[in-house]
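queue> pop job 88
queue> type: inverse folding (structure -> sequence)
queue> payload:
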């Protein structure tokens, strides 16, 4: 059909027909999704607090893998269950269950750690306190010390649906009298997210989400969108739920949602409601490309997410199977995943007679497409372990899936004795693992789904994929001893952290000591109270930590740094004469940073040295190490690599200085010239010195410069002071006969001396024949003012202005004495 024909037909339509056509076009536009942004989002950190003393991902996995049921009777510090319980659902003011999944000691909080005044903490909802702690732990689990994120575009997305703490306050006394300056901020849901951003100094999006039970999974969806839209570069997403007062449980009992026996019997014929649970979970999310570039530890990938609403259904709180199918399909499309690729789904699975059949039917209709009989879809629900965490339910299920992918195992689904007869098990390709089931990585990428449906009608689904395979650096040998450091704001907290690590090592005796030390040293914030332990094996570290917790320092070094004071650090680089065969061999074998730096130097020197640098240091050419042409470049390369290693550990210099040859490395570290130019200078210097016709000698003299200087006139042009190493320590350098004669004279005056084992008379008149040729090389180098405080060998003082930033300085450096 020609465009003219289409235009004619449109012109003949009535206004009503045109309106219908426009409506259909708009509907088609809405139903045609935009091309998805397919970059996955990496999960790089997890923080969690769940019932049964679960305070980290490892303990959560232990609970899941062992099939632990964390449900217990309502503890007395929440309310008197005997006063509120009645099996009759119509009994006024009563609840039909005595059970739930609770976290202990939710009233405890280290306010000093977060810099919050005790007066303000009293008004703070414990959910806000818990979120702060878990967010901090999640960032440290990701290897991102929170203090490094100040003013960063880090987003915070928090699911929170209850405000029981305000109800507790009202019930305990006259509400008006209890209102204070912190009541509003302490109980506002918006502040639950905003306080995290405020305390940590984060400047990305920060919002609280309340879509009832789907809240925390909706936060993951929003965080992924924000990352993909580059509104933030890092995101915290999760949720929290605490049960502090009886009101909500009474309401859910009246709505016939509570299981009288306190168990979520998801997919079971006896399913009759759910148990309420407490917890907090936070994920650290990052764009995959950024995570790979930064070398983050990727735990899993979020491929796709989607959120929708039930619309009209059998009731406001009733599920809608078609809407569930739609949200799952949208998430698959968003992630570019085919239905048959999904191997497991962590279901909403509350254990209600109405909700379970609808959810399984929806899963079968979408994820059953193209699925062969030998590839059934496994489904389960973490609610059978820890109850329904409401505002934190979705993130709890998502963390379970991430851990299952890591451990290559699907944990058992509990409380399934007889399959629900209202679910078409024979027709739907789904199975419910009630025992631990292997989920091995293989040729096909493992993919899972996580569903969370709010009783407000908001549905969310997330598609998760196993982490990408990463190449692990393999070293020739592990370093024999590792350094483990830990710090806290006070001594009590330091003891608690040490105890946590000791317990972890006891539970994970095969843990990598190198990885553990690296994460503790570089992935945690550093505070005033500190501990350091050198250990060669995990068991050795565990023993030292246990001894420290028990009150004996033993192998642990402890101390306290003054608040706000950073110790000043100087790097000193040695001169010629410190070399020895095989120096740096073990570091080269065990430290990737040191190895990379030394390899870089070796590559830059390949055109300057006849024998390869690494062969001179570690190989068959070791005899060359004492020849000046090789000694100086070798010392330079080794010292530069050591400097890079210290700086990779976070030890950076406030001041640098070097002794003779060492000043060239100091200049590179200070930014006076580049590594390539530094190696160019030192290799030319050493080569020209090696070619001098008269090598000469040097001797150390235990005398002052003033005592030795008058004797030099008799040896003009043949002898000089090469170094002033101290008030009563100088080095003389020059022609062999002159050195011998002067030391004999000094001995007669009672001044002791000692010949030095050197190849040439450095910093003496014998160096003058090489100065012109060296000046030509020095003129080819690009110089810059030092970016770090830099001490000059020529003056013994800090370099001022352009002093060391010109070729002439380095020419004089060859000839004039080292004023150390």
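queue> result:
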């Amino acid at each position: 059909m020609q465009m003219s024909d289409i235009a004619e037909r449109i012109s003949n339509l009535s206004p009503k027909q045109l309106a219908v056509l426009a409506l259909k076009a708009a509907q088609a536009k809405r139903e045609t999704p935009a091309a998805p942004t397919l970059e996955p989002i990496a999960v790089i950190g997890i923080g969690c607090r769940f019932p049964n003393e679960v305070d980290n991902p490892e303990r959560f996995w232990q609970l899941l893998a062992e099939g632990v049921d964390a449900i217990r009777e309502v503890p007395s510090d929440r309310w008197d269950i005997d006063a509120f319980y009645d099996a009759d659902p119509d009994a006024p003011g009563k609840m039909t269950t005595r059970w739930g999944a609770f976290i202990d000691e939710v009233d405890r909080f280290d306010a000093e750690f977060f810099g919050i005044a005790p007066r303000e903490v009293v008004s703070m909802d414990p959910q806000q306190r818990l979120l702060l702690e878990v967010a901090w732990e999640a960032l440290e689990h990701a290897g991102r010390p929170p203090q490094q994120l100040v003013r960063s575009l880090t987003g915070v997305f928090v699911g929170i649906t209850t405000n029981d703490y305000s109800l507790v306050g009202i019930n305990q006394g006259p509400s008006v009298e209890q209102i204070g300056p912190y009541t509003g901020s302490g109980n506002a849901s918006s502040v639950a997210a905003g306080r995290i951003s405020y305390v940590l100094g984060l400047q990305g999006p920060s919002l609280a989400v309340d879509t009832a039970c789907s809240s925390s999974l909706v936060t993951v969806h929003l965080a992924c969108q924000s990352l993909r839209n580059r509104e933030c570069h890092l995101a915290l997403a999760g949720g929290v739920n605490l049960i502090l007062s009886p009101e909500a449980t009474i309401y859910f009992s009246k709505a016939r949602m509570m299981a009288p026996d306190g168990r979520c019997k998801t997919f079971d014929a006896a399913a009759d409601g759910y148990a309420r649970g407490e917890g907090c979970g936070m994920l650290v999310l990052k764009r995959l490309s950024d995570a790979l570039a930064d070398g983050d530890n990727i735990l899993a990938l979020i491929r796709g997410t989607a959120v929708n609403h039930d619309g009209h259904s059998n009731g406001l709180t009733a599920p809608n199977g078609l809407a569930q199918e739609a949200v799952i399909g949208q998430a698959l499309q968003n992630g570019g995943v085919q239905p048959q690729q999904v191997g497991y789904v962590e279901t909403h699975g509350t254990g209600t007679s109405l909700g379970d059949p609808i959810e399984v039917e929806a899963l079968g209709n979408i994820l059953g497409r193209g699925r062969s009989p030998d590839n059934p879809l496994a489904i389960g629900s973490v609610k059978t372990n820890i109850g329904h965490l409401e505002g934190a339910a979705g993130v709890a299920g998502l963390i379970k899936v991430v851990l299952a992918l890591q451990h290559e195992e699907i944990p058992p689904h509990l409380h399934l004795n007889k399959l629900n007869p209202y679910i078409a098990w024979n027709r739907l390709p789904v199975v419910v693992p009630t025992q631990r089931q292997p989920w091995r990585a293989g040729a096909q990428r493992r993919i899972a789904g996580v569903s969370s449906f709010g009783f407000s009608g908001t549905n969310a689904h997330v598609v998760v994929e196993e982490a990408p395979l990463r190449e692990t650096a393999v070293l020739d040998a592990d370093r024999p001893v590792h350094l483990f450091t830990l710090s806290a704001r006070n001594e009590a907290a330091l003891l608690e952290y040490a105890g946590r690590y000791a317990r972890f090592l006891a539970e994970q005796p095969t843990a990598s000591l190198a990885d553990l030390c690296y994460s503790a040293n570089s992935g945690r914030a550093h505070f005033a109270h500190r501990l350091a332990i050198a250990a060669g094996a995990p068991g050795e570290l565990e023993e030292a930590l246990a001894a420290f917790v028990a009150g004996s320092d033993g192998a642990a070094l402890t101390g306290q740094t003054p608040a706000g004071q950073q110790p000043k650090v100087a790097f000193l680089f040695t001169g010629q004469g410190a070399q020895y065969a095989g120096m740096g061999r073990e570091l080269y074998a065990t430290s990737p940073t040191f190895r990379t730096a030394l390899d870089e130097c070796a590559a830059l020197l390949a055109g300057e040295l006849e024998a390869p640098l690494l062969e001179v240091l570690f190989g068959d050419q070791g005899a060359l190490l004492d020849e000046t042409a090789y000694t100086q470049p070798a010392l330079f390369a080794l010292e530069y690599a050591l400097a890079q290693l210290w700086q990779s550990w976070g030890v950076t210099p406030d001041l640098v200085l070097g002794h003779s040859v060492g000043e060239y490395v100091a200049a590179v570290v200070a930014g006076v010239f580049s590594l390539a130019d530094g190696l160019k200078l030192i290799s030319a210097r050493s080569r020209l010195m090696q070619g001098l016709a008269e090598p000469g000698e040097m001797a150390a003299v235990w005398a002052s410069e003033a005592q030795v200087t008058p004797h030099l006139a008799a040896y003009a042009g043949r002898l000089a002071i090469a170094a002033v190493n101290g008030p009563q320590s100088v080095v003389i350098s020059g022609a062999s006969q002159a050195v011998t004669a002067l030391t004999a004279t000094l001995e007669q005056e009672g001044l002791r001396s000692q010949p030095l084992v050197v190849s040439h008379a450095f910093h003496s008149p014998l160096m003058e024949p090489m100065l012109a040729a060296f000046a030509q090389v020095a003129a080819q180098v690009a110089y810059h003012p030092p970016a770090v405080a830099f001490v000059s060998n020529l003056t013994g003082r800090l370099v001022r202005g352009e002093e060391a930033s010109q070729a002439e300085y380095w020419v004089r450096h060859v000839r004039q004495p080292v004023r150390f």
